[in-house]
Amino acid sequence: MTKQDIINQVCNRADLSRSKAEEAVETVIDLIKDALGQGEAVILRRFGTFQVRSKSKRMGRNPKTGEEAEISARKVVRFKSGKHFKQAVNDEDME
Fold it and tell me: pLDDT digit string (tens) for 39-75?
């Protein structure tokens, strides 16, 4: 499913115009990005939690040459699914 598919579904299910549905989806995505950019966790009950985690620099290895290379420190986004989300996904797989 792409962002355009989500916009189309919001448009149909919420009985909104396509432009309003697109605005709503873009606003939600922007709010999540802004919160994560400020280091805040985004908790969506019955869905899951997005968190920013810091990874320290470390030594890695180039898989082609075997040569060691330093991997710089960075931030990554982690998503932990909620109980209801996991159940919904597992129930769908069983049918």
Answer: 999 999 999 999 999 999 999 998 999 999 999 999 9
Q: What is the pTM of this model?
A: 0.77
Domain ranges of the chain: 1-39, 41-95
Strand, helix or coil at 43?
A: strand
Q: Contact at 8 Å (CB) between 46 and 81?
A: no
Pick the CATH number of 41-95 from 4.10.520.10, 3.30.300.30, 3.10.350.10, 3.40.50.300: 4.10.520.10
CA-CA-CA-CA dihedral for 46, 3, 40, 78, to nearest 10? 70
